[in-house]
């Protein structure tokens, strides 16, 4: 069966590393992004230069109409979906909960929770044997923050990842008989741009001393875990939450 994946937030960071590795492993890849057209196109070009197939698709995963368009364009241009990586996630400036306003909370929850649900729904409608699909796999990119709660930094973000963990377990059980496996990776302290959105671009270097392995992680180290969970090597794993945190 042809392997076709939608990877949300794949223009940069963990999503981009996952798109490149997925292409290397034989997936045709839909590289979703929010607004960084140049970065998404660079990922597509890199895949094409290595002989792979990829398209770039702008869509805000928190907007239902955008998600519908995203999946329709992957259907049309790549073919029947076999994998979804729910990766597009955001955090906001580091602050205490008492200082967070409603707009921020809604923005974080809409992208990190609603976005994951909307994309999972569209993937299930296509892949579930209940809907005539041939099965597939979903990997949700959660965070080690769901365990620690990120006090003083972004409890809202951590809580959104707690929701992703719970969604992973519930959805895995809901569709287990329909040919779809649903798992999550929980990274922490990975060198990407996300820490700059929290107001501290050098965060990984500050905290790496507290990581048992005494280093930050690279995006490709998360991508490898994601690709394993998508693959048939993980054929009896569903509802699993895999930490990629250097032991933290
Ligand atoms: N880095 C870490 O240490 C770490 C740790 C734990 C978990 N994670 C999780 O890993 C995932 C990826 O994080 P990252 O560090 O790779 O982030 P990143 O470098 O900041 O990249 C974010 C990606 O998401 C896209 N994006 C943002 N909002 C979107 C939306 N509403 N719709 C569609 N795409 C959107 C961005 O697109 P544009 O380029 O167009 O802006 C970009 O491709 C997130 O879920 C994050 O919570 C990261």
Describe it.
This protein is an alpha/beta fold and 248 residues long. Helix 1 (13-24) links the parallel strand 1 and strand 2. It is globular and about 45 Å long. A 7-stranded parallel beta sheet has the order 3-2-1-4-5-6-7, with helices on both faces. It is 45% helix and 15% strand. The protein binds NADP nicotinamide-adenine-dinucleotide phosphate.
Query: In which order are the strands of the major sheet placed?
Result: 3-2-1-4-5-6-7
Tell me the name of the CATH class. Answer: Alpha Beta
**Total DSSP E strands:** 7
What does the average pLDDT come to?
Answer: 98
User: What is the percent of helical residues?
Assistant: 40-55%
What is the count of DSSP helices, taking H or I runs of 4+ residues? 9
Uncertain residue ranges: none
CATH superfamily heading: NAD(P)-binding Rossmann-like Domain
Largest sheet: 7 strands, parallel
Range of strand content? 5-15%
What is the 3D form?
Answer: globular
**Could you name the CATH topology?**
Rossmann fold
Q: What is the assembly state of the chains in this entry?
A: single chain
Terminal CA distance: 38 Å
Instruction: Specify the structural class.
Output: alpha/beta
What is the ordering of alpha helices and beta strands?
EHEHEHEHEHHEHHHE
Radius of gyration: 17 Å
The number of distinct structural domains comes to: 1
């Amino acid at each position: 069966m042809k392997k076709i994946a939608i990877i949300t937030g794949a223009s940069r960071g963990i999503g981009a590393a996952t798109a490149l590795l997925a292409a290397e492993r034989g997936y045709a890849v839909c590289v979703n992004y929010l607004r960084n057209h140049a970065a998404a196109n660079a990922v597509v070009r890199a895949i094409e230069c290595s002989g792979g197939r990829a398209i770039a698709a702008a869509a805000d995963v928190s907007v239902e109409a955008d998600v519908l368009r995203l999946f329709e364009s992957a259907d049309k241009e790549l073919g029947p979906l076999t994998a979804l990586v729910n990766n597009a996630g955001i955090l906001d400036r580091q602050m205490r909960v008492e200082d967070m306003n409603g707009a921020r909370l809604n923005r974080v929850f809409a992208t990190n929770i609603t976005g994951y649900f909307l994309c999972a729904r569209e993937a299930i409608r296509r892949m579930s044997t209940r809907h005539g699909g041939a099965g597939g796999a979903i990997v949700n990119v959660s965070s080690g923050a769901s365990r620690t709660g990120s006090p003083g930094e972004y409890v809202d973000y951590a809580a959104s990842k707690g929701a992703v963990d719970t969604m992973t377990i519930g959805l895995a059980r809901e569709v287990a008989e329909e040919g779809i496996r649903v798992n999550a990776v929980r990274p922490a302290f990975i060198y990407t741009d996300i820490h700059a959105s929290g107001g501290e671009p050098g965060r990984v270097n500050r905290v790496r001393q507290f990581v048992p392995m005494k280093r930050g992680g690279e995006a490709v180290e998360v991508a490898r875990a994601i690709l394993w969970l998508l693959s048939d090597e993980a054929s009896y794993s569903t509802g699993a939450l895999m930490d990629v945190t250097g032991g933290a």
